[in-house]
């Protein structure tokens, strides 16, 4: 990977700061009045104010490791009337109790409701530390969590470089949503797909022009295709572009990882998938082998180098290669006799 200069290293931070300043100035966001008595407390370490009664906590970039202890997914907290909603919860109960205590000092009350957007260990295992908060998920998400989460505990522990705590409990959502879309508390939501039997739910605050797209959007590099399907990711990204919850546009998106994104970044995600598929298809048509990376596959014309230089890009390329090979085998005509 090329060495990043000091100036280049500052750019993502500056972009994030500018986006946050613009977001705080959005009239729709400022219309969200704080709960009486909550005061104007400064943000606790980790939690950042987004608008009145809304905070975000940004995870570490990259995959889970001993260094970041799995705290990689972005979280969103919303005060709505007497309730405090938490979208995502973190990698374990201990971590979540710590960030929830900091959030309580900001919001003036404890977390009352926690939502599991999709079955990712780093995003949902922490809800075990939020009893007696109500635990919500779409029924399809909860069904996949029931199968995967017990295995994910040990897998995440390996990445963190330490054994799972004895008796680690997996708390499954017990308040289940049905259907393709709906509303819950301050949120509008819809059900989408990553592929491979992995549902995701995306959540919007229509009055503030904000939405969260865990599992579909990334801000710390290219999106992540591992354990996902290319066709489903393309279809879901298009659904994000078309989404107008309660007839209102979405101006800012909280991704799985990285800083806040804008509407144009959703289009960039779609362009990335389309360019990557075309690049791999062209390489296969020329008889290239999977390990032979030419300049076109490495750069993807029209896309920024920070995406194609990221480690996830090469993993995505390998994944698309296998998916296109499988597609070709499935469509090959049967041999004639």
From TrEMBL:
Signal sequence range: 1-31
SUPFAM superfamilies: Metallo-hydrolase/oxidoreductase
Keyword Signal in annotation: yes
InterPro entries for this protein: RibonucZ/Hydroxyglut_hydro
Keywords linked to the UniProt accession: Signal
Domain of life, source organism: Bacteria
Protein name: Uncharacterized protein
Species assigned in the record: Sphaerotilus hippei
């Amino acid at each position: 990977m090329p060495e990043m200069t000091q100036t280049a290293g500052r750019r993502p931070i500056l972009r994030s700061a500018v986006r946050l300043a613009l977001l705080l100035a959005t009239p729709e966001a400022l219309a969200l009045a704080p709960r009486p008595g909550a005061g104007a407390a400064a943000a606790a370490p980790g939690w950042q104010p987004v608008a009145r009664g809304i905070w975000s906590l940004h995870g570490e970039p990259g995959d889970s490791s001993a260094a970041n202890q799995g705290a990689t997914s972005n979280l969103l907290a919303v005060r709505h009337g007497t309730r405090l909603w938490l979208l995502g919860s973190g990698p374990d109960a201990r971590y979540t109790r710590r960030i929830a205590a900091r959030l309580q000092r900001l919001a003036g009350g404890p977390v009352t409701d926690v939502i599991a957007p999709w079955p990712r260990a780093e995003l949902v295992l922490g809800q075990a530390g939020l009893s007696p908060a109500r635990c919500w998920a779409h029924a399809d998400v909860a069904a996949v969590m029931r199968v995967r989460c017990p295995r994910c505990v040990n897998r995440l522990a390996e990445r963190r470089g330490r054994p799972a705590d004895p008796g680690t409990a997996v708390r499954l959502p017990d308040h289940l949503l049905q259907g393709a879309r709906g509303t819950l508390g301050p949120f509008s939501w819809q059900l989408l797909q990553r592929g491979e039997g992995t549902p995701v739910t995306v959540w919007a605050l229509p009055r503030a022009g904000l939405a969260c797209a865990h599992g579909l959007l990334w801000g710390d590099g290219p999106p992540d295709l591992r354990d996902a399907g290319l066709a489903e990711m393309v279809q879901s990204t298009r659904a994000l572009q078309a989404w107008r919850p309660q007839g209102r546009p979405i101006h800012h998106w909280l991704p799985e990882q990285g800083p806040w994104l804008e509407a144009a970044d959703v289009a960039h995600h779609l362009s990335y998938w389309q360019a990557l598929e075309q690049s791999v298809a062209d390489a296969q048509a020329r008889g290239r082998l999977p390990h032979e990376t030419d300049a076109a596959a490495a750069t993807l014309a029209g896309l920024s180098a920070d995406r194609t230089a990221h480690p996830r890009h090469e993993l995505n390329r390998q994944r698309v290669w296998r998916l296109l090979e499988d597609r070709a085998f499935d469509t090959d005509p049967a041999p004639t006799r």
